[in-house]
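Customer escalation, tier 2.

The customer says the design service returned an amino acid string that "doesn't look like it belongs to this structure." They asked us to rerun it and document both sides in this ticket. The original structure tokens are below, unchanged.
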């Protein structure tokens, strides 16, 4: 039996709008992934703790509040501190292009802006997982 990709998906910070996150959660589930949706107002600590507890392969963050340059680096820092360097970190939301470039330099694998087809996110995660040492 093939291992399911385990994704922790969250809305960190003070965002109160989670429609996009729920759309992505459904698309990932429809693609056969196991999605642990943490919901709104999650802290980086809560997200990384859930990833540890759930043995997540992927952390996906949806951010609309403008706090992406604070939240993503903190999640990356906590993953490193917990020796979880093999967890894929992706995200989406309203993030300026120059900030996307900076976040990718920090270690965020990919960022998906508004209007990105859900298949693009699914395909990205599936390809990463197929090539990942976690899947060996």
């Amino acid at each position: 039996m093939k291992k399911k990709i385990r994704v922790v998906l969250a809305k960190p910070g003070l965002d109160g709008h989670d429609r996009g996150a729920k759309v992505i959660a459904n698309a990932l589930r429809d693609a056969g992934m196991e999605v642990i949706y943490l919901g709104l107002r999650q802290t980086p600590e809560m997200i990384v703790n859930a990833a540890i507890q759930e043995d997540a392969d992927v952390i996906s963050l949806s951010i609309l509040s403008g706090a992406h340059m604070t939240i993503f680096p903190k999640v990356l820092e906590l993953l490193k501190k917990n020796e979880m360097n093999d967890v894929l970190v992706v995200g989406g939301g309203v993030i300026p292009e120059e900030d996307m470039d900076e976040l990718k330099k920090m270690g965020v694998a990919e960022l998906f802006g508004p209007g990105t087809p859900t298949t693009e996110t699914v395909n990205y995660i599936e390809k990463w997982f197929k090539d990942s040492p976690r899947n060996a």
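Tier 2 assessment: The sequence is consistent with the input. Residues 6-135 form a domain with the Rossmann fold fold (CATH 3.40.50.280). The first strand starts at residue 6 and ends at 12. Sent an explanation to the customer and offered a walkthrough call.
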